[in-house]
Amino acid sequence: MKLVIQRVSSANVSVNNQTVGAIEKGLLILIGIAHGDTEDDIDYLVKKAINMRIFNDDKGLMNLSLLDVSGEVLLISQFTLYANTKKGNRPSFIDTAKPDLAIPLYEKCISSFQKAIGKDTVQTGVFGADMKVSLVNDGPVTIIIDSKTQRI
Question: What residue numbers bound the domain in which 7 lies?
Fold first, then answer.
């Protein structure tokens, strides 16, 4: 499972010109789910994302976490994070989990973030939809975490 985490001052996602999710200060998180991913991957990534000290303190140093700043989360499913570009010019998505695995894990990830940050709602996109994402990347700060390569 992969996360692309972007620190934002605002972000939103729309489907068919309708806004379906929006946040102010917080994290826009793109999630890619692959074959073999489990709830253990979710537990690891959620804990890592909410505790990562990537928000500025009063001295301008990245010393605060999402929890410290009471930030929000916009979580968007993005299968293209598992694009394989090894051969040719057309990406292969063979490593991407099929919807029967990906949807339950995505929904579990949403509920895990809700529980972890103590808020009833985590804003989301629509799984499998053609989405338009807008953001103001604060910093810019963008961090990629892969649950398979980051574990100790």
Answer: 2-150
Residue 79 is given by DSSP the state G
| CATH code at position 88 | 3.50.80.10
**Active site residues per annotation:** 80
CB contact at 8 A, 73 and 60: no
Bridge pairing between strands 55-56 and 62-64: antiparallel
Beta bridge partners of 134: 12
- 44-87, pLDDT tens digit by residue? 999 999 999 999 999 999 999 999 999 999 999 999 999 999 99
| pLDDT tens-place string over residues 14-39 | 999 999 999 999 999 999 999 999 99
Tally of domains within the chain: 1
For the residues of 80-130, what is the DSSP string, one character each? GGG-B-SSSSS-B-TTBPPHHHHHHHHHHHHHHHHHHHT-S--EE--TTS-
In percent, how much of the chain has pLDDT > 70? 97
CA 81 – CA 31 distance, rounded (Å): 8
